[in-house]
Amino acid sequence: MSTLELYSPTDLNDALRFIEHDGRNAAVIASGTDLLPRMRRRQISPSVLVDISSFTEDLRYIRQAEGTVRLGALTTVTDLLESPLFSGKLSIIREASMLFGAPQVRNVATVGGNICSAASSEDLIPVFMALGASLKLVSAKGERTIPLKDFIVGKRETAMKPSEILAEVSFSPPVGHSWTAYEKLGRRNMLILAIVNEALSVTLEDDLRTIRSARVALNRVSGKIPALAAKTNDFLQGKRVSDQTIARAQKVLASELSLTSDFRGSGEYRTEVAQVYLRRLMERCVRQIGGPS
Length: 293
Ligand SMILES: Cc1cc2nc3c(=O)[nH]c(=O)nc-3n(C[C@H](O)[C@H](O)[C@H](O)COP(=O)(O)OP(=O)(O)OC[C@H]3O[C@@H](n4cnc5c(N)ncnc54)[C@H](O)[C@@H]3O)c2cc1C
What we know:
- By secondary structure, the protein is an alpha+beta fold.
- The protein folds into three domains: 5-51, 2-Layer Sandwich (Uridine Diphospho-n-acetylenolpyruvylglucosamine Reductase, domain 2), CATH 3.30.43.10; 56-171, Uridine Diphospho-n-acetylenolpyruvylglucosamine Reductase, domain 3; 177-289, 2-Layer Sandwich (Enolase-like, domain 1).
- The protein has eleven helices and 14 strands.
- A hairpin with a 2-residue loop joins strand 13 (211-222) and strand 14 (225-228).
- 41% of the residues are buried.
């Protein structure tokens, strides 16, 4: 029988030194709401858990300075819900947090754990992708920053090295004629992993009719990987806001998705919902910005 050890580092540097030497057999644990069920299902079998949950001084914060919002990896979903920062153009974070699990899960589930789980049903990954977020990864040798869009490289696979810990998520809040919105479909309203979830951040030109930029992100864009819908985003750039533009964008979106079927829903159904959500998100954002009625 294989054994499992728990390592409780004294501080973040101690954790980093530990995984520098034994990272391949170790798994960092924050709150364990994703990790422990997977271990129980024997999907992963680390030999050591490195518990970072007590490093709240270093890793649990929500800050805004010099045009950048910074979230420590141990920030919980409840922290997001309680922050006054996530209203107006950033209400997308509040929307996604309200639809996340149930209060008991939200109180402990961390932003870092959500992103590092790299699962195809997570709520915060498309949201932070739509916001153009970057991640700060730290190791015993230093730190590096990587765009979130490049972080998830396969099903449950990330670009993080075994010797690294995710320390921070950062992004520039949308400015000018911008808005953000989120939609999630589940089989019920609470405690549900998404069948489809989709996030949009859009900016209009000063005429409030032309799309300066759009970032649609959703899970399972290709296979089971959350990603930006790059072709759709390219298509929308510079287009006039109209029913026709949205209808054409829906077709582009359908062409770039390869949504998979499982017990929650078929690929065809998911593609249909993703298209409906694109229209709904666009209309919601444009209305908030004060564009075409
Ligand atoms: C009942 C229930 C309901 C849920 N509902 C939802 C939901 O509605 N929406 C949703 O998105 N998710 C949901 N989840 C999944 C889970 O709660 C989230 O993914 C959560 O954000 C994971 O955070 P955690 O702190 O528990 O991560 P953990 O389970 O501790 O870790 C998850 C993974 O990330 C790694 N990791 C964690 N932190 C770091 C770090 N800082 N650096 C490097 N690696 C790290 C771990 O090694 C592990 O691989 C639910 C889970 C349960 C049990």
